[in-house]
Please model this.
Amino acid sequence: MTAANEPSGEGWQHDVFRVLKEHGVRHVVYVPDAGHSTAIRLSEADDEIHAVVLTTEEEGIGYLAGAWLGGERGALLMQSSGVGNCLNTLALQCCARFPLLMVVTMRGDWAEFNPWQNPMGQATERALQLMNVMTWRADAPQDVAPLLHGAASMAFNGDSACALLLGQRLIGEKKWVK
Model:
């Protein structure tokens, strides 16, 4: 068994799911995203995890607050553009101090083809930090497992808001498909 702070050898996408499982995550809430597709697919296939598709990212914060009140852990998977949707709702975590773990795939920070992704992509980390969310950034596959392990430990052991940002270089360059 691979330790939570070490890569699994199956790829960083599997590491995201594995670390969530090792931290007792029972709820994975998400807006569909190609960067999170492996974790989403594995969550949906796991009988111990409630995988919930959201219509908008901020719904996930309320859902995870409810999961915590029910004694269970969860994680919100989203793209950097969805962080902008969550800013006002992050006040719930600031006031109620429940564990909030977010895994954010980045857009608009390297080789972005879609200029609409750039403003929020450039502001994501600062915006999260302004709302008292601790952030870490993974740009290399071997960094994902240890950084997510650390973020999950701090979220679940300290009732903190924590986000791991998965850099666009990690995910790969996206191109328009004709």
